[in-house]
Predict the 3D structure of the following.
Amino acid sequence: MRRKYDVNYYKRSDHEWFTWVQDCRIGGLTISARCVQNEVTQKALSYHTRKLRQKGYFIPPKPRGTAVPAKQELFCIDLSGKN
């Protein structure tokens, strides 16, 4: 986890946080997996999500249930009239 005293510390802008939060909410990964991937704590994500809402940004709701679409069956219909 990055800290302010780390050489690699980078402060994200509001726009970067907004884009990142949207990707977390809309993307296929779980929020916790996305946090681990980007080295951000869930507490930091919650904090910045709250601050963005206070500034007037629209944050999509948290995903509920599975993100996997239902299985659909495909079949061909012969419209040529030939058997």
User: Anything to note?
Assistant: The first helix runs from residue 14 to 26. The two ends are 66 Å apart (CA to CA). Residues 66 and 72 are 16 Å apart (CA to CA).
